[in-house]
């Protein structure tokens, strides 16, 4: 469960809820924060209920992001560097980060003038909604896993979860990454502002980490993502709204949807995180990046099948990290 090779496709939703509880137990959150098991289970059930049955941003995606966060916490030994309450914030943010996602992104919400866009004044409407739903669940006594904490502790947790979930709005990607890069030369785990930025980076890495998983796990996720994208572009065309270019089924292919994302989003984010944590040795990724290996992702093999995922399996972030995990 701590490794990136974990295959979420082999588990049913009921089993996934048990695995999420295992994570909270394994990180000592249950005992440290006096979380009753029936409350933990009710919380996870409410979370499950509030994820919609859509192709990508569903309960399984919630689990994958949380499982990656869980693995990173162990891999980077954050338990010795940060307070338990910060780790609780990070894991719970991952669990809640896409609650009640509609399957249509912020651009659609704003262009279509949806209820969410109107409610949140076009400012990260989805992410604000995810936060609101999370705290609706936590407002109920029977599902409030923080109910035994002090007022000050709850205030800190609420502030942290909101910061983390809002950080998953990709329009803020460059802003957050630049903040992190600026802090790296002087990064101090005792500095709250520094920790806050790291927590945002950690949930961002976890959120986009599918492309860092083994091919047989990652490729079905790309199929799910493209289906959700195509559903949105179809709706945009139907409603006469601007069509999001990278979602247009008439223009997008699997390789074209991934090459730019991997090169300009995934690589830079993971490499900067590795600069803080030496265990995340990305020398191989840097070498491939320098020789523009990604440009060859559109090559065809002899069967005519696009080899994008075969190449990505060589470029994987996690297999490079796996020896670090196994050496613990």
From TrEMBL:
- PROSITE patterns found in the cross-reference section: PDEASE_I_1, PDEASE_I_2
The molecular function terms of the Gene Ontology recorded here are: 3',5'-cyclic-GMP phosphodiesterase activity; metal ion binding
* UniProt cross-references to Pfam families, sorted A to Z: PDEase_I
InterPro entries recorded for this chain?
Answer: HD/PDEase_dom, PDEase, PDEase_catalytic_dom, PDEase_catalytic_dom_sf, PDEase_CS
Active-site residues, Swiss-Prot/TrEMBL: 57 (proton donor)
What positions does the domain PDEase occupy? Answer: 1-328
Q: For binding Zn(2+) 2, which residues are annotated in this chain's numbering?
A: 98
Q: Which UniProt keywords apply?
A: cGMP, Hydrolase, Metal-binding
Q: So, what pathway does this thing act in?
A: Purine metabolism; 3',5'-cyclic GMP degradation; GMP from 3',5'-cyclic GMP: step 1/1
Q: What CDD domains is this protein classified in?
A: HDc
Which SMART domains does the entry link to? HDc (SM00471)
GO BP annotations of the record are: signal transduction
State the source organism's domain of life.
Eukaryota
The residues that hold AMP are 57-61, 98, 207, 258
Q: What is its EC number?
A: 3.1.4.35
Cite the binding residues for Zn(2+) 1.
Answer: 61, 97-98, 207
* Swiss-Prot/TrEMBL catalytic activity: 3',5'-cyclic GMP + H2O = GMP + H(+)
The job of this chain, per UniProt, is described as: Specifically hydrolyzes the second messenger cGMP, which is a key regulator of many important physiological processes. Highly specific: compared to other members of the cyclic nucleotide phosphodiesterase family, has the highest affinity and selectivity for cGMP. Specifically regulates natriuretic-peptide-dependent cGMP signaling in heart, acting as a regulator of cardiac hypertrophy in myocytes and muscle. Does not regulate nitric oxide-dependent cGMP in heart.
- Family per similarity comment: Belongs to the cyclic nucleotide phosphodiesterase family. PDE9 subfamily.
Please name the PANTHER family in this protein's record: CYCLIC NUCLEOTIDE PHOSPHODIESTERASE (PTHR11347)
The protein, known as:
High affinity cGMP-specific 3',5'-cyclic phosphodiesterase 9A
């Amino acid at each position: 469960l701590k490794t990136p090779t974990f295959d979420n496709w082999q588990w049913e939703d009921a089993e996934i809820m048990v695995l999420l509880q295992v994570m909270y137990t394994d990180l000592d959150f249950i005992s440290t924060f006096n979380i009753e098991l029936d409350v933990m289970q009710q919380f996870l059930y409410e979370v499950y209920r509030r994820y919609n049955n859509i192709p990508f941003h569903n309960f399984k995606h919630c689990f994958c992001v949380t499982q990656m966060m869980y693995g990173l916490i162990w891999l980077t030994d954050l338990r010795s560097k940060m307070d338990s309450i910060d780790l609780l914030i990070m894991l719970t943010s991952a669990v809640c980060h896409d609650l009640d996602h509609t399957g249509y992104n912020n651009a659609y919400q704003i262009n279509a003038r949806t209820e969410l866009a109107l409610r949140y004044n076009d400012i990260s409407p989805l992410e604000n909604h995810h936060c609101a739903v999370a705290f609706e669940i936590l407002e109920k006594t029977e599902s409030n896993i923080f109910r035994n904490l002090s007022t000050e502790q709850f205030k800190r947790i609420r502030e942290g979860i909101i910061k983390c979930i809002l950080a998953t709005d990709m329009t803020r990607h460059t802003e957050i990454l630049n903040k992190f890069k600026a802090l790296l030369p002087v990064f101090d785990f005792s500095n709250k502002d520094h920790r806050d930025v790291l927590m945002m980076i950690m949930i961002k890495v976890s959120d986009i980490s599918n492309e860092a998983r083994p091919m047989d796990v990652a490729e079905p996720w790309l199929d799910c993502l493209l289906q959700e994208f195509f559903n949105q572009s179809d709706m945009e065309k139907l409603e006469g709204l601007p069509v999001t270019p990278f979602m247009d089924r008439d223009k997008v292919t699997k390789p074209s949807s991934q090459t730019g994302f991997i090169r300009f989003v995934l690589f830079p984010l993971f490499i900067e995180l590795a600069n803080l944590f030496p265990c995340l040795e990305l020398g191989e990724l840097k070498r491939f990046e320098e020789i523009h290996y990604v440009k060859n992702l559109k090559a065809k093999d002899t069967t005519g099948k696009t080899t994008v995922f075969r190449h990505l399996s060589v470029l994987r972030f996690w297999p490079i990290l796996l020896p670090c995990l196994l050496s613990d």
